[in-house]
Write the structure tokens for this entry.
Amino acid sequence: MTSMMQLIEELWRLPRHLVSDGYDQALARLAGEVPMTIHEVPSGTKIWTWTVPEKWTCDEAYLETLDGRRLIDLADSPLHVVSYSLPFEGEVSREELLPHLHSHPHLPDAIPFVFKYYQRDWGLCAPRTLINGLDEERYRVKIASRFEPGALKIGEVFVQGELDDCFVLAAHLDHPAQVNDDLSGVVVGLDVMRALLAGPKPRYSVRFLIFPETQGSIAYLSQHEHLIPQMRGGLFLEMLGTAAPHALQLSHQAHSPADGALALVLREREPEAHVGGFRTVIDNDERQFNAPGVRVPMLSLCRMANPHLPESRFYPYPEYHSDLDTPAIVSQDRLEASRDLVLALLAAFDQTRYLVNHYKGEIFASGFGLWVDYRQDPEGHRRHFRIMDRIDGTRSAADIALELDCSLEQVIAVVDPLIEKGLVSLSDTPQPSDPHLGAA
Ligand SMILES: [Zn+2]
């Protein structure tokens, strides 16, 4: 079995553009590690309000002086050309050239990652120091890029659970010659699936989707609309290799069972981890899953300092979208820690059930032998009632623990005796017992 770090070493340099041979090669390699279905969506296919782009290839690209001195050469890094750049060949003045040269906003010696999928322009990328040093009047440019019909490819790894309803994991495989964004999420997801495939059958099925960012998730969702109602929760895996603490971004439906279970487990395992609302930590494909007409509660997990702290000014991490996003900034240990966390989050979601009350009014606690004496344990007495107050068919144990800022164990200690006495049962779907709900 190839380790996560070995897979990164093998794949990271590939020119993994949105629809490209480099992307396909990486996906085919991953399909050798686990049973995987590869979906192909041809260029030009309408996917909801979008269209699948053409395949893009760049064989050669350079900038040189008129006397033939190479200043920028694609052979040195796949990032030297703007992803989806138009082809171009000719002599240009410095004034004509400069608007087509791109540098990184805060790393003067780095090559930035720039993409122009819809702007239809040509461009090269280089360190700011190199661009500032261009002192000749005229230059020669060549960008030998090609656009042709191809197919956007999506890898799907599936673990059948007891239920067809599923939890979705996702990560994006595009981004040439970069690692943390988001090859790190891809290999963590793959390792999670290897563990699930080897372990006992989960209750919910699990689908892991590997695709190019944005267009990949829209392509998959638009072609599998019949599966959307079965998607009960999801987690986008992103930027999991750096030394920063984990950060969890809640879904658009912050009160979903997935949100409650995942936020609670993260708080218990890593109290220093940041938990933020939808669209407040990092924006990615979870947007498509949470969007109108889809509304899968998909959270996202990454490693990032709290985005509101001053040290986060190099948001989301200093080497982001540059040629410094290499295997040197990620580690096998951290990838394994993220994998173990994802497995724990999935296990928590698997156990999530709604707590349904089969009683009305406050329970006659002493009559059932459930009385907690407030003279001996005032805190336990209060907690016991606060938990029982919330068992109404609309909350899980995790929801109640989050609401009361107590541990899951404390809630379970109250709920288990109620289940034993037949006063409470567990349900996969909400069973609101409030007689005002649903009344005409
Ligand atoms: Zn990115």
Observations:
- The first strand starts at residue 37 and ends at 42.
